[in-house]
Amino acid sequence: MEENQKIEDILIAKHLAGDISFEEELQLDAWVKKSEENQLHFEGMKAVWEATQPGKVSAAVDVDKAWNKFSEEIETKKGKTIQFTPWQMVSAAVAAMLVIFFGVRFFQQSNTTVVDDVQRFATTTSTLLDTLNDGSVITLNQESALAVQSFDGNSREMTLDGEAYFEVAHNEDQPFIVHTKYGDVTVLGTKFNVNTLDNKVTVTVTDGLVKLTAPNKKYVLLPKGKQGIYASGQAVPLKNEVNVVNEMFWKHQKLEFKNAEFQEVVKSIEKAYDVKIEVNNENLYHKEVTSSFDHESIEGVLQVMEATLNLRVQKTADKQYLID
């Protein structure tokens, strides 16, 4: 097997296991689109993955059966037989073992129950972009997990632990429901973000209308630009107006400020870049900031603020800064 092919097989395995970075996803996508042979190789490894879905990870992998099934499907579609070389069979088996390793590692660490008709996504140090069977697009943040039930019934239901952004395909006959341990989110077709970190559920709506329901059945309706928050013990979920762009920094890597108070800007930067900023000049809190940043590093953001607001920024430790 060529070295490049080994690299692409690893990327395919990481893609199928939901443990691939955005940059790696782009690299894999470009490779798949490069030739029909690459496309067939990708589909073949995907066929092996589908033969080892959760619930079957302890069983022996019948690679020959999976590849034969895939060959028959291709033959039917194209009217000709596709011959698979021995190295393709070996790479498929290796890929299957890789995805099983990724899957079992996640299931063991998160104590997730494996069910045949549940599609599971999980991330560790990178985000994941994928499309569900109904055409809805999900973006899963780092260290998050999503279990999607079959869409055969009257609703499209899933359970989230962590954070994810949903672009939901509209279907009035099948409500789209995201369950969390703090409450449920229900929509028909819209775009929204769900975060279950910090012992609460936070829902941010970027388009459409979303219903956030607490366990006690109390709920709030959230239109575009609104954010709903519910934590255990609250009587009803809270509803606030937020800067949607800044709330979605983890996905788009963008920050926007328009006549924003300096203290608000500092908090947004701390959250976006996971840093701690100490302000040693109370006069700065009276300043207003109007600026935008697109895929900028924390150093770049602070340099712009330093120049435009005539202040001084010092890095005091890893992820810690002092402004005076």
Automatic annotation (TrEMBL):
InterPro entries: FecR (IPR006860), FecR_C (IPR032508), Ferrdict_sens_TM (IPR012373). Residues 131-211 form the FecR protein domain. The keyword Electron transport does not apply. Residues 254-321 form the Protein FecR C-terminal domain. The keyword Transmembrane applies. Keywords: Membrane, Transmembrane, Transmembrane helix. One of its GO terms (molecular function) is sigma factor antagonist activity. Gene3D superfamilies: 2.60.120.1440, 3.55.50.30. This is FecR domain-containing protein.
